[in-house]
Amino acid sequence: MATAGGAWRQAASNLLDVLKEMDIGQIFAKPVNQQIYRDYSQYVSQPMDLGLVRSKLQSYRNAKQFATDVRLVFSNALAYCGRVDATPDFKAVATLAKKMQRRFDKDAPLRPYLAPTPLRNRTPPPVDENLAAQIAANDGKVAMPRDVETCVSRVHQSLKRVKAAQSFRTPIETERWTDYEPKVGGQALDLTSVEHQFKRGAFQQDCGAWVLRMRRISANCLRYNTDTRFPELRQDAKFYLKALEKELAQKVRPVLQSVGCPTPAIDRAVPKLLRNWPQILEALETSILAHYDDLPPKAQISYYFLHPFGAYFPSAEQKEFVDDYAQHVSEPICVGDVVSKLIEGVYDSLEPLKKDVSRVFANAISYYGPDGAGRRLHEPSDCDDYVQRAQRFDEAWTSVAKALKNPGREVKSPTPKKDVNLAALRCLDKLRGHRESDGRGGSYQVATPFLHANMLPTHSEYLPCIGGRKNCRDFDSIESRGKRQGYSSLEAFANDVRRCFQNAHAWRTRCDDLVRVGSMDANTLAIAAEITNSADILLIVLDAALRQERSDFKPIAPAKREASPARLTTPKKVKTDSPPKPFWRLQAERLWSKITKHEWVRNDGLQSYGGKLQWFRPTVEAFPTLREHYLGVIAKPMDLGLINHKLVNDEYEGREQFVEDLRLVFSNAVEFNRPAAQQAQSQKELNPHFVMDDLAAKTYAIATHLLNYVDHLELEYFKDDIADPPATPATAASITRNGISRDRYTCVLDEDEEARAKRREEAEAEAARLSALERAKLSASELKAAMEAKPAPAPAP
Q1: What is the pLDDT of residues 120-131, one digit of tens each?
Q2: What is the predicted pLDDT for the residue at 717?
Q3: Is the peptide bond before 580 cis (omega within 30 degrees of 0)?
Q4: Which regions in the chain score pLDDT beneath 50?
Q5: Phi and psi dihedrals of 435, rounded to 5?
Q6: Using an 8 Å Cβ cutoff, are 78 and 57 in contact?
Q7: Is 444 helix (H, G, I), strand (E, B) or coil?
Q8: Which of 105, 24, 21, 103 is nearest to 68 (CA)?
Q9: DSSP strands (E only) in 402-475
């Protein structure tokens, strides 16, 4: 049996062989000839090469010494060949050094031997007295040495790969979102601008300023997006903050400690957050943010406590209100300020945070109360309303804050992995066994397109449209993983199954594009549409199966322990068997899924049309500058967020009300943006090369498209409920179900009349060609009968 030292030396020897194969010119295998490169000693103080490392392999005491010398080879190459004035050949050597170093750092067999020493056995490095003196002379600010700059650069690169951080990479359009900076109480920040400031040396003398700005990105997002009914950006901000704190704890703080920075200075530059900050944010959302009016537009009841006082009175004429508030309130604070101080690491314990939240409502009660100074400038009825709201939220926060006294660590019941995978396999069997009526008295298996890998599309465009072969999923592969005990939770299993259905929707969208340009026939698109229909049906079956498995599953009882305050104060939810949903409700959910996943509706960031138009928020909240004008034009506002709330809470009695509200959202947009569209059309008539770039005119075109799209989906999903569906002539574009012409709801932005006419002519030509083929087609039975028929006798002369 090989010893531990022999094991890591064998792994190191194998790794040197791999690096040798990468080094085609054997540049790093021998020492640098300093007689040729005379200035080499000016940049490299300790030369090293891989040949010397191989000769010293048996003399290394541990793998860390070996890794130090290997990394020294590449760092020397980068220091000498990676200069700004280096020639292209030298820069190619530096690029090769970076590539080999990445390969060395990712080597799996050697990595266990390079694991850091446990904290309890690790001796902290000595404090650098010179650095401590520099920090004291710099008012306690920690400068960024070269090692810290390299670490910060790596942190930026790591955060770019975090999916949740993609929403924070582009600058905020403060010209459009005019209330952004007043509500967040400071400057708008994003990852790109902070990285540019770092590269320009803005944080050279203060590492803590960089940490503060990186954390404020998340704090600003949580302060501005306070509506918990639309949690997408709030969840992204929390995931981004978790990734950032992991980078700070595992990279930045250790590097500062390794350069000899004193521990108190590190705590000031990179302050630690409260250990239970996610639970604190959740408590604030539950007790304060998640309360809305009963009547439309169902605004937040706590809206006037969330932002600084000046954000509610932005104009110069209203400056009197702001000055009066600042004069009579000694310590102004809002819920947003508490969130910022929590995320920036200002609180070292829970008690100051609780006092600050209570002071938010105490200020409102003292200023608007019976003896408050606010009654001089504000209506008494408004003041009484503010006081009642403040008392209500103060009581709610006090009751929730009691559970945060001793948060402790969450104890989860151990879940046997075998039981989880058995439950996953049972759900998969339900999906396979689900059958639907075929309309002819029989039934068909809905899961047929997802059963095996050979059932997936073989078109060359399929893999690119779903993101590569790594995203391919089918029921056979999911079953194999479940039998290997590969799922640690039911959610992981559900994600794999949902991936199958997401791939079907992505392929349907790609087929639409290919048919539009003439690269695919109509039959393939029809098949993709049927597969998408099956995916929507199975998604409902999957959710029902998961709910049943979670309700029937009994985890192992944990060890007896004293109940925490959270367990004593939080009432236990009683699960009740809900009645089955009516068929129209299931169809409405499928229609809702179609609408919300449309590329012009879903919110893929502020740069997408869904992010710009904010369909899920009330227009008067998403665009506060248009509030008076909008309410003067639109009699009954409606948004998709309110529809979702009513759909979830079963407030619709039938599909007519649901479709009517859905149409109202887009018809309101059409009516409000009609003048801008007419103006754009008049400009286009004067200038044929005019390109529509006005957002209001584009909103009109998009809303018109979505309004017709709703009509199409209503006919598709509720055809049996509609008495007289409108007849639509069949064309080449009539490849959707029920004979609905896609031309009726096709909308192409920035398309000139010539291109639109050409596309229409191509569609008509394709329709004529398909019609001719249909007329010329002869069935097999008719052909056989014609061949077997005897010729008629010739007529008598």
Answers
A1: 444 556 666 777
A2: 80
A3: no
A4: 1-2, 117-122, 406-414, 554-575, 727-752, 780, 790-797
A5: -130, 150
A6: no
A7: strand
A8: 105
A9: 435-437, 443-445
Q: Tell me how crowded residue 567 is: count the other CB atoms within 10 A of its CB.
A: 12
CB under 8 A, 24+ apart: contacts of 34-37: 37/80
Cα 18 to Cα 37: distance, rounded to the nearest angstrom: 27
Alpha-carbon distances, residue 471 vs 394, 466, 477 (angstroms): 48, 7, 12
292 pairs with which residues across the strands?
Answer: 300
Q: What is the per-residue pLDDT across 123-161, written as a single tens digit (0 to 9) for each? A: 556 666 777 888 888 888 888 888 888 889 889 988 988
| Distances, alpha carbon 199 to alpha carbons 191, 196, 210, 713, in Å | 12, 5, 11, 51
Task: Reduce the DSSP state of residue 526 to 3 states and report it.
Answer: helix
Q: Contact 95/85 with Cβ under 8 angstroms?
A: no
Q: How far is CA 554 from the centre of its chain?
A: 32
What 8-state DSSP symbol labels residue 416?
A: -
Residue 117 is predicted with a pLDDT of 46
DSSP state letters, 66-109: HHHHHHHHHHHHHHHHS-TT--HHHHHHHHHHHHHHHHHHT-TT
Residues 6+ apart with CB under 8 A from 594: 536, 713
- DSSP codes, 362-391: HHHHHHHSTT-GGGGTS-HHHHHHHHHHHH
Q: Which residues pair with 437 in a beta bridge?
A: 443
